């Protein structure tokens, strides 16, 4: 097996499957990528992409432990194995559908399902450092697919002094840097984040940060009031009016006082927090106005991050499910030029899965990318199929 790893590292081309199951708990993204080279010479083609939506049952099993302080440890233990096996099944079906054989695939890169993200500024316990936890056992994926699997990318970043997120910065820089353009790669998933790449492309000046909530709060209230999984194209929000008082109270969340870069999650931005503000101030707000205000809140967090970049003429390329929320994009376009990432030739839905495949490509080739203040390490743990 170790010989096989060396052979994969020496190959001119590598086929790597990137798996992303993000914080919006909507499903598993699968990106089959072909890589040539590594580090600054990386080239990637997306050969196939698919999303396997989580069933209601899987989603509700994850929600029992997701971003919660008090949980049933047995549930985490069971889910860890279950999700690994489930991802393996999804990959095998995906390969069959796309007419690829297991033997053609060199590696799988699995992000796993984040269940808790606790940087120091969140837990504030001086005994502990930055911490994060992703589950979906990669031994299950490797064993049941027969493909070497690299997983758990965030832990090395933390070991080397980072917060474990955002990791998109590495792939964003390698794939999307462009001399002469101040680029922002913005991803609006459950949580929103961006990478800034200056026109000089000086790696020391590149940085990335989460900006606050993305779609999570919108999804929750779209489900609660309209029985919809999300506010399609932002239509409900657009029919409402922003409540400035609520927007102000939401913006007082301590996350916004922290300096950039920083990371966050649904441990901070969750529906219970919004509902407590509504109750504390006895706010009677229509569901439409609430969704409108929360969309403004997502936009405000992103705009605050972009302001911290301190550059004019930013060119913003947006990905993630939030890129389809036209009302949200319109709010951003009032301040900046915003285009869909697709104009750069990569699917906006596939981007994060592609970026984790890229991290596996770096791990296997042993290259280490020095970017800004980010740890210069290769990330991930290797699971062998047998
Ligand atoms: N047509 C649409 N209109 C508005 N919102 C949409 C649309 N399609 C998808 N979304 C939003 O995108 C979300 C999924 O986004 P995505 O898959 O990028 O998130 P994620 O990868 O799970 O999150 P993260 O990047 O935070 O880990 C859905 O939950 C929904 O809110
Ligand atoms: C702990 C965790 O899973 N964080 C995610 C989440 O979803 C978006 C944002 O918060 C980002 O920081 C990160 O994912 C992306 C892929 C990243 O690391 O770049």
Automatic annotation (TrEMBL):
Keyword ATP-binding annotated: yes
Catalytic reaction annotation: 1,6-anhydro-N-acetyl-beta-muramate + ATP + H2O = N-acetyl-D-muramate 6-phosphate + ADP + H(+)
EC number(s) recorded for this UniProt protein: 2.7.1.170
Keyword field contains DNA-binding: no
MF (Gene Ontology): ATP binding; kinase activity; phosphotransferase activity, alcohol group as acceptor
Matches recorded under CDD domains: ASKHA_NBD_ANMK
Keywords: ATP-binding, Carbohydrate metabolism, Kinase, Nucleotide-binding, Transferase
Cross-referenced Pfam families: AnmK (PF03702)
Listed pathway(s): Amino-sugar metabolism; 1,6-anhydro-N-acetylmuramate degradation; Cell wall biogenesis; peptidoglycan recycling
Superkingdom: Bacteria
Binding-site positions, ATP: 22-29
Biological process according to GO: 1,6-anhydro-N-acetyl-beta-muramic acid catabolic process; amino sugar metabolic process; peptidoglycan turnover
Family from the record: Belongs to the anhydro-N-acetylmuramic acid kinase family.
Biological function: Catalyzes the specific phosphorylation of 1,6-anhydro-N-acetylmuramic acid (anhMurNAc) with the simultaneous cleavage of the 1,6-anhydro ring, generating MurNAc-6-P. Is required for the utilization of anhMurNAc either imported from the medium or derived from its own cell wall murein, and thus plays a role in cell wall recycling.
HAMAP family given in the database record: AnhMurNAc_kinase (MF_01270)
Protein name (record): Anhydro-N-acetylmuramic acid kinase
Natural source organism: Raineya orbicola
